[in-house]
Amino acid sequence: MKFLVINGPNLNLLGQREPGIYGENTYESLCKRLKDFAAAHDSTAECFQSNYEGGIIEAIHGARGKYDAIVMNPGAFTHYSYAILDALKAVDVPCIEVHISNVHQREEFRHKSVTAPACVGQICGLGFYGYEAAMGYFLSRENVTKESFRG
Ligand code: DQA
User: Fold this and answer.
1) pLDDT in tens, 72-109
2) What does the pLDDT read at residue 145?
3) Atom 6 in ligand 1: which residue has the minimum CA distance?
4) How far apart are CA 63 and CA 135, in angstroms?
5) Dist. CA 55–CA 48, nearest whole Å
6) Residues contacting ligand 1 via CB (< 6 Å)
7) Which of 10, 36, 37, 142 is deepest in the core (most CB within 10 A)?
8) Contact, 8 vs 76, CB < 8 A?
9) CA 73 to ligand 1: nearest atom
10) How far apart are CA 39 and CA 17, in angstroms?
11) What per-residue confidence (pLDDT) applies to 141?
12) pTM as predicted
């Protein structure tokens, strides 16, 4: 499968940013890990990161006809970006939302995701492994349409 991995604002600072919450491994190491995971499953993973809402929206639009699935950590946009929600609804590429930390153990504003309703599902609190878990889910359901991904 062809995966597009999208990471939102501040995730480029993984390894330096609040390591007690997000760990000590860098964004670059995350991308290498996901590319290696994909390759081990006869797949590819392209990593995209932006600190801008518009950049993420354009990456979602650009996934049409190019990728089989999106794995996305929208960062703080998760909690308020209706524009990213609409972008996900506008394309027929299925997406799983991932959060490195367990957002439900954190501040109240992180408990709500406005983007998750347009996703197949959401994974949180499993660290970098969450991205692999999302890819593994899609791999287990290859050849299934967006509508029936949940089954
Ligand atoms: C995050 C959780 C968000 O609340 C936060 O704004 C992030 C990272 C996570 O991966 O745990 O930037 O999405």
Assistant:
1) 999 999 999 999 999 999 999 999 999 999 999 999 99
2) 57
3) 76
4) 16
5) 9
6) 10, 73, 75-76, 78, 99-101, 103, 110
7) 37
8) yes
9) 13
10) 28
11) 87
12) 0.95
